[in-house]
Amino acid sequence: MNRIAIFASGQGSNAETILKDFKDHSNIRIAMICSDKKEPGVKAIARSFEVPFVYLPSGKRNDEEYLLNLLRTYSIDFIVLAGYLKLIPSFLLRKYQNKIINIHPSLLPRFGGKGMYGKYVHQAVKDAGVSETGITIHLVNEEYDKGRILFQKSVPVDVHDSIETIESKVRKLEQQYFSKVIEQWVTSSYSS
């Protein structure tokens, strides 16, 4: 059984989809949800799926011994970032080389980097007047949104689209493809 930890900072819409999609999977189990927020929306989602929720306070996020012991406690094989906004420490990247992925709400390399998340990305897309946006699922490395791209899917942007409309289009792509790519990544050479 491949055991996944989801790291999330917000409401947990992607985490909820992943939990639903892997609820009865024969080879993948969501073993824990970890957050840098004490009471995020994703905490209630974890509870509803009976998945352990762990709060990771700022003093522990870069504590190598603490974090690696925590992941060992839950026998974690892979880490999925689903709206997690903190930079992953280098010791974790070494321990989980090619075993940490993230989803970003644009077609990287455009509209990525520190501070580019959620509505900030969609606002930048609208302000740039581009004709398409989408999602990028990528391996995580030492820089925000710079890891090797595993998957991208685009959606058209109309000049009259509001930020909320763009966000809705992107969210549909996230919910349609993130779990499929996770499954492929866990069971393929992506993670080797």
Descriptive report:
The longest helix has 24 residues, at 163-186. This protein folds into two domains: 1-96, Formyl transferase, N-terminal domain (Rossmann fold); 106-176, Rossmann fold (3-Layer(aba) Sandwich). The chain has six helices and seven strands; from the N terminus they run βαβαβαβαβαββα. It starts with a strand and ends in a 6-residue tail after the last helix. Helix 1 links the parallel strand 1 and strand 2. It has helices at residues 13-21, 41-48, 64-73, 90-95, 118-128, 163-186; strands at 2-7, 28-35, 53-55, 78-81, 100-104, 132-139, 149-156. Helix 1 packs parallel to helix 6 (163-186) and helix 5 (118-128) crosses helix 6 (163-186).
Compact summary:
This protein is α/β, with parallel strands linked by helices. The chain has helices spanning 13-21, 41-48, 64-73, 90-95, 118-128, 163-186; strands at 2-7, 28-35, 53-55, 78-81, 100-104, 132-139, 149-156.
